[in-house]
Design a protein that fits this description.
There is one protein chain. This protein has 16 helices and 23 strands. By secondary structure, it is α/β, with parallel strands linked by helices. The strands form six sheets. It has a seven-stranded mixed β-sheet, with helices on both faces. α13 (391-394) links the parallel β16 (381-384) and β17. α2 (76-92) runs antiparallel to α4 (109-126) and α2 (76-92) crosses α7. The radius of gyration is 25 Å and the shape is globular.
Amino acid sequence: MATPTSARPAAATELGTINHWIDNKPYEGPVARWGDVTDPALGKVTHRVAFADEELVNQAVGAAVKASATWRVSSLSARTRIFFTFRELLNARKRDVAELLTREHGKVLSDAMGEVQRGLEVVDFACGLPQLLKGEFSENVSSEVDSYSIRQPLGVVAGITPFNFPAMVPMWMYPLAIACGNTFILKPSEKDPSASVYCARLFAEAGLPDGVLNVVHGDKVAVDAILHHPDIAAVSFVGSTPVARYIYEQGTKAGKRVQALGGAKNHMVVLPDADLDLAADSAVSAGYGSTGQRCMAISVIVAVGDVGDRLIPKIRERIRKLTVAPGLSENAEMGPLTTRDAYDRTRSYVEQGVAAGATLLEDGRNVKPAGGENGFFVGPCLFDGVKPDMSIYKDEIFGPVLSVVRADSYEEAMNLISSGPYANGVAIFTNDGGAARRFQNEVPVGMVGINVPIPVPMAYYSFGGWKQSLFGDAHVHGKEGVHFYTRGKVVTARWPDPSHGGVNLGFPQMK
């Protein structure tokens, strides 16, 4: 498998080194601080990653500013050719990217492959940039006066992305931003940074000019440098709600355009008439996929009427057949949590749930798969009898803990969802079209699934929640993404004495 950086291991350690990517090459200057990158299946530090300071961020922004002068005026045809080449390179090497994800995040290889594919769909969408950037034209708004609109890039923009989707979430951002004529600073999670550098290498191989895409690693020091830098016009963020609020407040205070996606507590409402085999399959898949570390994971099942008594045995039957193992193992369905902190936090929440009086039906705290005895493994945990005042209901655990809440009616289920602070995704399972239509119209949540547990939209629709799941006005990718990374301009023109370029019998060509 190709290594994500060309940097040599440090002399004083056997660890591999992951460095910044600036001007289409690895950064080779001094690094004052480093962070650890761990293989969560082994519980072992395998690499160290360079942490950026303000000076390093300034250097990356300087490269992006310089590149912006020519990239913003590059032809749509030239940009499109680069994007199609990048798309083919990424598609050909997506297993390499997926293996990096598995080694650093912990998700199983099949899940990692799916993540890369969903990111690739945004690249596909960005390949249609000539269509995406078309404006409007009105002839003769007044006598011999025409009016038309155009969209222009912002300049240098940045993305700050989370650990749970190290390839997909960055690709929600930089392909569209770059397609629109911007240059980009990416600050990926320091927990699993290799995929971002690998993809930046592929983009350079595809012909992306120097300085258009830069990757800087680090912690809050790098984040604050991005938020306060005067040459960065916009910031995209995905992460927890407290950090999203901070990003939004600091970025907007500095005069930037900001979209900041926060946390979630996604509910799955199951009505008595639902297909229970489908509901059980969906609950297990959406609750325990990626070990529960998805912002769109189902963490609460709202069982309406008597459906819980019929549904829970089916869920338990499926849980007991799951294979928990290191992500690169054959037949692995669920890997470890990404960090020791996540492992400890998840186990603590299970203890809190038991102490609060919820019934722990499935306890995955003692899972120790072969080859992962020292890894951060927590198997599927299932609670019944969960109440809205319990911490396992209120808090975003971000682990494989699924809670069942009983509701007597549709109205009670809706009140549970409506009263929560988060509004990222929600699902309803029913065979009643009228109930489903009523639900989609009434539920105050940004993304709704009807017999679909994880309603992540395709790239040509935008991703985003409501309430404290989103700070800012724009959702990610899709048409809203294009509008976020561009600003509109309207031109009103009169040409009373038009001229022409003389006779030219050649076939007209766009240059």
